[in-house]
């Protein structure tokens, strides 16, 4: 019996994400939680003739029932950006929302794989980790910051420039999930790029979220592409846990779950030995993180990106880890 709970299920990401999860034969129970509208979303999705049962839960009184005994909890709850805002500007509102959802998960689904989408991811993942530590149920292998949209974008943008099918373009994107903390490692693709192409692609991958925020003009940020990316990530976590399939995805994790080689590679790339969270290529397994790959060879150009990423990430992590 695989139970998946989506927290923020009535939102811009939550609805299409739930639709994609409803299509998976891996899911037996799709539990939809939000502070508004989930009865309607659940009734609607429940008519789709796939295996899973769908339940809707609305408001804090129903959070326990929604989340209880979940195998995986996906969190796209909270406010999105408007033009002119950074992801860090969302901390004020989203930190408390994520903390409260994490508290319910720590109490009622302590073994769940936690997939955190709510921004700022660089800080919300440490918030969830601290809540789980406080409840003595922390396993760093089970808590993930979802950075898959950066990988999806990188694949699409590079394939546009190189005239390739995106399915053949897999870019490793590591670091964090905001502007300069997003580090695409284009040098590992085995493609040649002009300096102009490198600058433009790197910038587009780092600031792809801003393109959508600007185009939506006050109506929010990426929702459909994020639902696609979030479903890909969550279903890969399930594939690995339920079916034992070996899948590798870049995801933002506590480095306590990473191999010594991977941790060392973060130190070398960033020049900072104090970073405690970083997105890395992670092999997923029955307990979440099975192994982590080191960053690998990087160019001088990327070395500068890593230094800038490390400096910004450090503050984001500290802010999340000290939030009560
Ligand atoms: N990790 C990533 O790559 C990405 C992250 N995001 C982030 O995802 C979050 C959600 O974005 P959207 O779906 O566009 O926003 P939205 O405003 O459309 O939906 C958010 C939903 O969360 C719900 N919510 C608010 N407080 C809640 C609580 N305490 N418990 C449960 N649900 C609650 C709202 O009622 C709403 O339905 C934002 O923080 C956004 O920045 C967005 C795109 C990509
Ligand atoms: O840009 C935003 O605020 C939403 C997000 O994280 C993304 O699209 O990558």
From TrEMBL:
Gene3D superfamilies: Lactate dehydrogenase/glycoside hydrolase, family 4, C-terminal (3.90.110.10), NAD(P)-binding Rossmann-like Domain (3.40.50.720). Substrate binds at residues 81, 87, 119, 153. It catalyses: (S)-malate + NAD(+) = oxaloacetate + NADH + H(+). Its EC number is 1.1.1.37. Pfam families: Ldh_1_C, Ldh_1_N. InterPro entries: L-lactate/malate_DH, Lactate/malate_DH_C, Lactate/malate_DH_N, Lactate_DH/Glyco_Ohase_4_C, Malate_DH_AS, Malate_DH_type1, NAD(P)-bd_dom_sf. GO terms for biological process: malate metabolic process; tricarboxylic acid cycle. NAD(+) binds at residues 8-14, 34, 94, 117-119, 226. Residues 147-323 form the Lactate/malate dehydrogenase C-terminal domain. SUPFAM superfamilies: LDH C-terminal domain-like, NAD(P)-binding Rossmann-fold domains. GO terms for molecular function: L-malate dehydrogenase (NAD+) activity. One of its GO terms (cellular component) is cytoplasm. Coiled coil: none annotated. Signal peptide: none annotated. PROSITE patterns: MDH (PS00068). Residues 2-145 form the Lactate/malate dehydrogenase N-terminal domain. Keywords: NAD, Oxidoreductase, Tricarboxylic acid cycle. The active site is at 177 (proton acceptor). NCBIfam families: MDH_euk_gproteo. Belongs to the LDH/MDH superfamily. MDH type 1 family. Homodimer. This is Malate dehydrogenase. It comes from Phascolomyces articulosus.
């Amino acid at each position: 019996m695989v139970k998946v709970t989506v927290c923020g299920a009535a939102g811009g990401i939550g609805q299409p994400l739930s639709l994609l999860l409803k299509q998976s034969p891996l899911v037996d129970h799709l539990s939809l939680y939000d502070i508004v509208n989930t009865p309607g979303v659940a009734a609607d999705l429940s008519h789709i003739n796939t295996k899973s049962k769908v339940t809707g839960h609305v408001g804090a009184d129903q959070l326990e029932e929604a989340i209880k005994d979940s195998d995986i909890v996906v969190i796209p709850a909270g406010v999105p950006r408007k033009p002119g805002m950074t992801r860090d500007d969302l901390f004020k509102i989203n930190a408390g929302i994520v903390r409260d959802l994490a508290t319910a998960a720590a109490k009622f689904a302590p073994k769940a794989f936690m997939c955190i989408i709510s921004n700022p991811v660089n800080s919300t993942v440490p918030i969830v980790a601290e809540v789980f530590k406080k409840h003595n149920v922390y396993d760093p292998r089970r808590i993930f910051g979802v950075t898959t949209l950066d990988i999806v974008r990188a694949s699409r943008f590079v394939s546009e420039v190189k005239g390739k099918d995106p399915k053949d373009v897999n870019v490793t994107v590591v670091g964090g999930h905001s502007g300069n903390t997003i580090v695409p490692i284009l040098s590992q693709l085995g493609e040649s790029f002009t300096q102009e192409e490198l600058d433009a692609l790197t910038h587009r991958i780092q600031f792809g979220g801003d393109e959508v925020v600007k185009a939506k003009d006050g109506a929010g940020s990426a929702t459909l592409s994020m639902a696609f990316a979030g479903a890909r990530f969550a279903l890969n976590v399930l594939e690995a846990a339920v079916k034992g399939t070996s899948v590798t995805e870049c995801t933002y994790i506590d480095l306590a779950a990473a191999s010594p080689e991977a941790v060392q590679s973060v130190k070398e790339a960033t020049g900072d030995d104090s970073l405690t969270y970083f997105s890395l290529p992670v092999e997923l397994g029955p307990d979440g993180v099975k192994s982590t790959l080191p960053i690998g060879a990087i160019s001088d150009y990327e070395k500068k990106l890593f230094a800038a990423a490390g400096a910004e990430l450090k503050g984001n992590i500290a802010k999340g880890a000290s939030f009560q």
